[in-house]
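hiii so um. not sure if this is the right channel but i have a protein structure encoded as tokens and i wanna go backwards to a sequence. like what aa goes where. can anyone help
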């Protein structure tokens, strides 16, 4: 695989590499109004379940109640190859990435089909596909040069070398922010990030494991459906990548540079900028969620603008969503990526908006509202005249209830001899991270890598 950098770095929004983008909060006044309106609609309180929570979130994102219909749902598929694919971590060869990019452009992939079902459109951006020149159209309308978005030709093999240089990770992050700006300026009111890249679940797992301080065995998944032999190769690759990245665990941008890739960094930039621009996002599978974890650490509060669309079969995605406090809307066993799982959740968002905006209130429909609870003025310790005394014939006493029996205990999975597999050996033959680091990129450096807390989406 040729992993030479692109000749010219991509253009980027004006922001210093070490600056932290400021992400605004949702509109709490609109959210309060949405909750109040939910209580007036012709239904019992809470009867629409998560649709009610989603409607409040959409109102907060749009800053109005009732919220407007979603007019332009836009899928953005970020494509890039990874040098780690040559280690045998995937069931497919790396040339499939470029072939699938062509399939996206022709409208023949699963993401295209599902996008058509929900009225969304699809854009594919080549940031690091292993081809001499990018083949995707550039810009929101396809009129820009595709070279503007190409960071390099394939990211580095992360078990032996860094995925990106410091300049390249900054360029990839800026490309993601640029893409978000282009789409939002063109009218997108809901973004669905997707991805394509053979071997990309390996760097995603390495990024998640490093940032959340987990072991390789906790984050590795089956990806494209690999067998046990490839699973062991993949776990070893994640182990080696994490060993190289752990000195930088306090700086998410550095972790993306060492163990991630151009696609993950671009997705992180897109997710941050969506929050900066007050535009809601539906998250997809493990690659997008790995980028989301880094994005929240780079720009605390960005997660308020995201909702988790789907539960992936990849264990690293579950760890990310638990950490971010996001509960997926759907769990259909998907592991394809591309944005497919997030697209399946879009109808729930449109239903949430429509029910809040279009349902009649009790007054409008002439329907009686729920009766207020009667005041409890009776003294329950006294008996009325004629009532039998406790213990007398005709009286009722609840049966005594003993302590609840302990529930069944769960059993763990059988232990694995990780030493036999070579996954916990103390030393390794891979090279260390590139020694030259900017000040904000040093291990443990404060700044953009510091994590923060923020409210969670429904």
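sure thing!! here u go:
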């Amino acid at each position: 695989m040729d992993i030479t950098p692109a000749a010219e770095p991509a253009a980027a929004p004006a922001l210093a590499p070490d600056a932290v983008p400021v992400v605004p909060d949702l509109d709490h006044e609109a959210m309060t109004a949405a909750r109040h309106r939910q209580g007036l609609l012709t239904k019992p309180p809470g009867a629409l379940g998560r649709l009610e929570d989603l409607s409040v979130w959409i109102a907060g994102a749009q800053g109005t109640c009732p919220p407007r219909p979603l007019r332009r749902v836009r899928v953005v598929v970020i494509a890039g190859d990874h040098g780690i694919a040559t280690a045998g971590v995937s069931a497919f060869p790396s040339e499939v990435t470029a072939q699938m990019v062509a399939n996206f452009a022709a409208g023949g992939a699963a993401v295209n089909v599902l996008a058509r079902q929900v009225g969304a459109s699809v854009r594919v951006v080549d940031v690091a596909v292993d081809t001499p020149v990018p083949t995707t159209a550039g810009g929101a309308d396809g009129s820009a040069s595709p070279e503007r978005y190409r960071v390099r030709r394939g990211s580095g093999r992360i078990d032996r070398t860094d995925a990106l240089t410091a300049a390249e990770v900054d360029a990839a992050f800026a490309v993601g922010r640029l893409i978000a700006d282009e789409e939002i300026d063109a009218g997108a009111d809901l973004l669905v990030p997707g991805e394509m890249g053979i071997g990309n679940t390996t760097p995603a797992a390495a990024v998640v494991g490093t940032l959340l301080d987990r072991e390789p065995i906790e984050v590795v998944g089956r990806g494209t459906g690999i067998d046990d032999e490839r699973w062991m190769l993949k776990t070893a690759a994640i182990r080696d990548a994490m060993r190289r990245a752990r000195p930088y665990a306090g700086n998410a941008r550095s972790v993306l540079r060492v163990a991630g890739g151009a696609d993950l960094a671009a997705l992180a930039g897109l997710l941050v900028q969506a929050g900066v621009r007050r535009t809601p996002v539906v998250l997809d599978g493990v690659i997008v969620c790995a980028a989301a974890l880094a994005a929240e650490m780079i720009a605390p509060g960005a997660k308020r603008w995201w909702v988790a669309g789907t539960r992936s079969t990849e264990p690293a995605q579950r760890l990310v969503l638990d950490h971010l406090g996001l509960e997926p809307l759907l769990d259909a066993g998907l592991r394809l990526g591309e944005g497919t799982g997030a697209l399946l959740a879009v109808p729930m968002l449109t239903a949430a908006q429509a029910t809040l905006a279009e349902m009649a209130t009790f007054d409008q429909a002439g329907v009686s509202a729920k009766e207020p609870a009667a005041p409890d003025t009776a003294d329950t310790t006294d008996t009325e005249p004629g009532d039998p005394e406790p213990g007398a014939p005709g009286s009722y006493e609840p049966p005594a209830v003993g302590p609840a029996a302990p529930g069944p205990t769960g059993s763990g999975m059988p232990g694995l001899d990780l030493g036999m597999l070579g996954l916990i050996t103390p030393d390794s033959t891979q090279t260390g991270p590139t020694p030259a680091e900017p000040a904000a990129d040093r291990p443990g450096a404060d700044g953009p890598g510091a994590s923060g807390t923020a409210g969670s989406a429904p």
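oh and The longest helix spans residues 166-185.
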